[in-house]
Amino acid sequence: QVQLVESGGGLVQPGGSLRLSCAASGSGFSRYTMGWYRQAPGPQRELVATITSGGSTNHVDSVKGRFTISRDNAKNTVYLQMNSLKPEDTAVYYCNAQLRVAFDIRNYWGQGTQVTVSS
Length: 119
Known about the structure:
By secondary structure, the chain is mainly β. The protein is 0% helix and 54% strand. It is globular and about 45 Å long.
């Protein structure tokens, strides 16, 4: 079982910045694909960004050029640097870990951290 704990959310004005952190348990962190997802009011949870064990990244079009996902394997931590924040970025942000177990792919989730962008 992988345990994930997010931090760094809060209230910020439009145009401001936040850095989210996600600390993962266990010794296998460097082998996980990590991601950030967000959920605005409503049932849908959308992908924001992913980073593979090899460091390859993907960012959803709506955040490209503004958000950057990164990881520090020595600290078992993944980050999401968020710049030029917009009100539409307001959501609960969730950390995700994906790993292969036998022939299955398993996903683990953190508890979420609230990001509110408002003037």
